[in-house]
Amino acid sequence: AGYAATQVKIDAAAVWCALEAEGTVYLGTGDDGRLLAMSGNRVREIARFDAVMVTSLAWGAGVLYAGTMPKGLVYAIDRKGRWREFTRLAAEHVWALHWDRGVLYAATGPNGKLFAIDSSGKSRVHHDSDEKHLLSLAPAPGGLYVGSGDGAILYRVDRGGGAFAVRDFDGDELRALS
Least CB-packed of 48, 96, 104, 136 within 10 Å? Predict the structure, then answer.
């Protein structure tokens, strides 16, 4: 025995990100900036944001967060599917989101900043890198691992904001971390 696969048709030019939360798979699309929810074989639209792409998703404290581009907007979606603009960051691209201990972190470009966002939506620069884009986030002991582009550098950023380079990889981008 093993897993069975079922094809589900999704009406979107591209799916840029996906996240499973509470039995539903959420999909961020482009080039139409929509958030879709898939339960079983059923796909429904949750929101159509003022964005070209939904680039990142994170789940925290019963809220789904969606990062977008090109305006640096992050939206909050509650369990009933109601959504609102949560914060507007001083960035164009929100490449990755990560929820940790009541703080939503946002990896952004094109100025390579990591933002920390509190529960009210107030943001501050948590780490300012020399890279153009911070593209990916993953939990690290005491903080986060952050992947960058154009230098493909893996950083470790502490909850207090201190950072150091863990590794400089060959290539241009560190798009995903796990």
Answer: 48
Which structure tokens are listed for 12?
């979107």
User: What's the confidence (pLDDT) of residue 7?
Assistant: 86
- Sign (positive or negative) of CA dihedral 120, 124, 130, 132: positive
Residue 111 CB partners (closer than 8 Å, separation 6+): 91, 128, 132
Low-confidence ranges of the chain (pLDDT < 70): 1
| Strand ranges in the chain using DSSP code E only, listed in sequence order | 14-21, 24-30, 34-39, 42-48, 53-60, 63-69, 73-77, 83-88, 93-100, 103-109, 113-117, 123-128, 133-140, 143-149, 153-158, 163-168
| Phi then psi dihedrals of residue 5, to 5 deg | -110, 140
